[in-house]
Each structure stands twice: as structure tokens, then as C-alpha cells.
């Protein structure tokens, strides 16, 4: 096996999100979020699970920082809970919420772990949802004000900011299919949410630039590497349509290319045009410093006589518990594609990981073989993309520890650290040992 050495200065991290790990949903004047509301609707979340306690990170963050330090983690991506800072989304700021994140930042920096902060990871304050949430243009300026508060308070310690996590997910699954909060099924709401989310991103970047804050800012999205199910020309065209309705819909405006014409036409023909006002596209295209890439798998595409012109072909690779194909080649392949598509931007892999539900054996050892094998494959592919000239500078493993997996509740385990939900004990898995070795050596055998 060859040793794959990553570039000098490459950063290795882990990622989490506020609602998925913090718990303490009613402490220190935190406001109610759309996920607090959604989890209490019967049938919305597997087993009726909630994030009320989650991993209790709010009380155990020092233990979790020590755990990261023991693994050699260099950078930690996590999200602020908007409703801890602004319980009603805007208006009066909550000093107790700010103070919690002060303590977390200081603990991380004491261990030389660089914070990478996501401003929004799906937990919109319910008070803003009551006004329409992402379907209401007012949320844009509320987000910009919240972002400024975060920049002002934490900008002396944070040098890497992410505006939004996966707008494709919280807009589509929250507003069109309804399987995530706020649980809407309305194509018009979906159209408005897309544009307002991207506009909010642009306004936050503007605020960052205007304030002269140090560091860098970007956005991260959920991505899938699309592959044709066969060699037919019409299948190749279907793949491009899939990219229009997924990757290009959210990346194109950020990189100044606008919305794909096929998507604009799709919404207009249904009487729900994207609510673009003069100057909006320029705001959305305010220059960023990096692109965050979240990727877990690939999808096979075939043509279809439907409203979008494509559909998913049956999978051909083994399936993981989330229903994804085990496709480690997808990470390097997507990075090459997106790098070429948008002029070789600086890229951080802000999420990549594996759902592996391996439980402890009789000796308490968690040998999550599938995760280890796929991690090796993902990183080998990423190394190849870097060798081909893609400017990738950091990799964040999703996730530090098993946590609340949204509509799946606690039934899916993505952590390199096992969470015992009865005791809340953290138990590093074999994949954590493997990852620590990769970090120590800045590379791996593959």
C-alpha cells in the first residue's frame, strides 16, 4: 500500500451542529426553534425522539473538547444556536447564550483547536417561523443582524465562518417534501425559501466585509456526485438537469452565474417564480473566501418524462443504513467537478462521513469496520483530487460523536465516538483511533 501524504498545513477536523448535540433546550433563556416544534408533532421523528437532551453537550462541552484534543483534532466545525443568542430571532440579545459560546471558544483555543463556526444549521427561531420563516423576506435582515452580533462578539477568536449549512436540504425537505422542519409541502414556499436563504447568505457576507472582520467566510452545501446510469446521450443530458436542480441551483448564484435557466423556467411555469428583486443577485454573489463541500455518496441518474427531466436509477453498490450507496470514489470525483465548474475555488470538506451502527462488543470495543474502510476510500479519492490541482485545505469528519439525526432520531450513528444515550458516556470507536493516526501522520496508507 502506498502512503498518501496530504499537503503541509492541511487541517483535520470534526463537525457537529447545535440542535443535534447541545440539549438544554429550555435553559439560560434559549428560545424555541422550529425543530423543538417539529419533534413534538406525532410521526415526524423516528421513535418520537427529540433533541431536548441530545448529547448534553451544553453541560459536557469541556469533556468533549478534551476528547477532541486527545484525538489530535485541529479544527472543530460547529453551529451557533440562533435562538440561544436571539430567543425570538431578533430584538433583544441573550447574554447567557453568548456567554456559553464564549466558554466554548475559550476552551477550544486553550487546546489549540481552531473554531469553524456555522451561523445557521437548520434551527430557525420559531418566532421567525411564525412570520413565515424563510418564505418571508424579513428573515434576511434578521439573519444579517444575528450574523453581525456573532462577528462582533466572537470575531476576536473565530477566523472561519460558514453562513448556512446545506440550504438545499432545509429549503427542499423543509418546504417542499415536508420531512424536516418546518414540515411544509408547498412548491411556492420552496421557491421563496431558496431565494431568501441565499439572499441571507449574501447579506451576512456583506456585513462581514463591511465590518472588516479578520478571517474568512463561505457557505456549505449538501452535494451528491451524479453519474449517468448508461452511456446514452439523453442520460448525459439528464445528469446535467440533475446538477441544475441541485448543485447549480445553490452554487451558481453564489459564484455569480445566477440561477440555472431550467430551474427558473420550472418555477415560473408553475406560477411560483423565484422572488428576485433588483440587486438581489449581486448581493448573493458577494465574493466568498471558500466553498464548503458536504458529501456522502453518489447517485445514478436516468432520463424521465417528468417535470424535471430526470430520475434516480436503482442503486448498484451496497447500501448503508441511511440508504446511501457506499461510494467512496464520489468525494474526489465531486471535488474535481465542482472545482472545474467554479474556477478552482478554495475548498473545505465541511462534512463527510459514514452511517455505521456497529454496537460495542462484549469487551466494549466498537470496531466500525465499514466506516474505517470507507473513510480510507474517501480520503484516497480526495488525495487524488488534490494531486490533480484542486485547492482543498481542510477535511471535517461528520461527526465527532453519535447524535440526533434529525427525522431519524437516534437510530443512525455517524460518530467516530460512540454516544451511550442512557449514560451519555462517550466511547471512542476504532475509527477514532484510525482518524487520530491519520491526523498525526497527515496522511494514510491506501
Automatic annotation (TrEMBL):
GO MF annotations, alphabetized: beta-glucosidase activity
Family annotation (Gene3D superfamilies): Glycosidases
Keywords: Carbohydrate metabolism, Cellulose degradation, Glycosidase, Hydrolase, Polysaccharide degradation
Superkingdom classification of source: Bacteria
Enzyme's top EC category: hydrolase
EC number: 3.2.1.21
Reactions that this protein is recorded to catalyse: Hydrolysis of terminal, non-reducing beta-D-glucosyl residues with release of beta-D-glucose
Residue numbers annotated as active site: 351
PANTHER family for the chain: GLYCOSYL HYDROLASE (PTHR10353), LP05116P (PTHR10353:SF36)
Family under the similarity heading: Belongs to the glycosyl hydrolase 1 family.
Protein name: Beta-glucosidase
Organism expressing this protein natively: Tepidiforma flava
Amino acid at each position: 500500500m502506498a502512503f498518501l501524504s496530504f499537503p503541509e498545513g492541511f487541517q483535520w477536523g470534526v463537525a457537529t451542529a447545535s440542535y443535534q448535540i447541545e440539549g438544554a433546550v429550555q435553559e439560560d433563556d434559549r428560545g424555541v426553534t422550529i425543530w423543538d416544534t417539529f419533534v413534538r408533532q406525532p410521526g415526524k421523528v423516528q421513535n418520537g425522539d427529540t433533541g431536548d437532551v441530545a448529547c448534553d453537550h451544553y453541560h459536557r462541552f469541556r469533556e468533549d473538547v478534551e476528547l477532541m484534543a486527545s484525538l489530535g483534532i485541529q479544527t472543530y466545525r460547529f453551529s451557533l444556536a440562533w435562538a440561544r443568542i436571539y430567543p425570538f430571532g431578533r430584538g433583544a440579545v441573550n447574554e447567557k447564550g453568548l456567554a456559553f459560546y464564549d466558554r466554548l471558544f475559550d476552551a477550544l483555543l486553550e487546546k489549540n483547536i481552531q473554531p469553524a463556526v456555522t451561523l445557521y444549521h437548520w434551527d430557525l427561531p420559531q418566532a421567525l417561523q411564525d412570520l413565515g420563516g424563510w418564505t418571508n423576506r424579513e428573515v434576511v435582515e434578521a439573519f444579517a443582524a444575528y450574523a453581525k452580533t456573532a462577528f462582533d462578539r466572537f470575531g476576536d477568536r473565530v477566523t472561519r465562518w460558514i453562513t448556512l449549512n446545506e440550504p438545499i436540504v432545509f429549503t427542499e425537505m423543509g418546504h417542499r417534501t415536508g420531512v424536516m422542519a418546518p414540515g411544509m409541502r408547498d412548491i411556492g414556499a420552496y421557491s421563496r425559501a431558496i431565494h431568501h436563504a441565499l439572499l441571507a447568505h449574501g447579506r451576512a457576507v456583506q456585513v462581514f466585509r463591511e465590518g472588516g472582520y479578520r478571517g474568512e467566510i463561505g457557505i456549505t452545501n449538501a452535494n451528491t456526485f451524479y453519474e449517468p446510469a448508461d452511456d446514452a446521450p439523453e442520460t448525459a443530458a439528464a445528469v446535467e438537469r440533475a446538477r441544475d436542480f441541485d448543485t447549480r441551483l445553490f452554487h451558481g448564484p453564489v459564484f455569480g452565474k445566477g440561477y440555472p435557466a431550467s430551474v427558473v423556467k420550472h418555477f415560473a411555469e408553475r406560477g411560483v417564480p423565484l422572488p428576485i428583486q433588483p440587486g438581489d443577485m449581486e448581493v448573493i454573489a458577494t465574493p466568498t473566501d471558500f466553498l464548503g463541500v458536504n458529501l456522502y455518496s453518489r447517485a445514478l441518474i436516468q432520463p424521465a418524462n417528468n417535470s424535471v427531466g430526470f430520475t434516480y436509477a436503482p442503486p448498484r453498490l451496497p447500501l448503508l443504513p441511511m440508504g446511501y450507496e457506499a461510494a467512496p470514489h464520489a468525494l474526489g470525483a465531486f471535488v474535481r467537478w465542482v472545482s472545474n465548474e467554479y474556477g478552482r475555488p478554495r475548498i473545505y470538506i465541511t462534512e463527510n462521513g459514514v452511517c455505521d451502527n456497529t454496537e460495542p462488543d462484549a469487551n466494549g470495543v466498537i470496531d466500525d469496520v465499514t466506516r474505517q474502510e470507507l473513510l480510507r476510500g474517501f480520503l484516497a479519492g480526495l488525495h487524488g483530487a488534490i494531486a490533480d490541482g484542486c485547492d482543498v485545505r481542510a477535511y471535517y469528519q461528520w461527526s465527532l460523536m453519535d447524535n440526533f439525526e434529525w427525522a431519524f432520531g437516534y437510530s443512525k450513528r455517524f460518530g467516530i465516538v460512540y454516544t451511550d444515550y442512557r449514560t451519555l458516556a462517550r466511547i471512542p470507536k476504532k475509527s477514532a483511533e484510525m482518524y487520530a493516526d491519520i491526523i498525526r501522520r497527515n496522511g494514510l496508507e491506501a
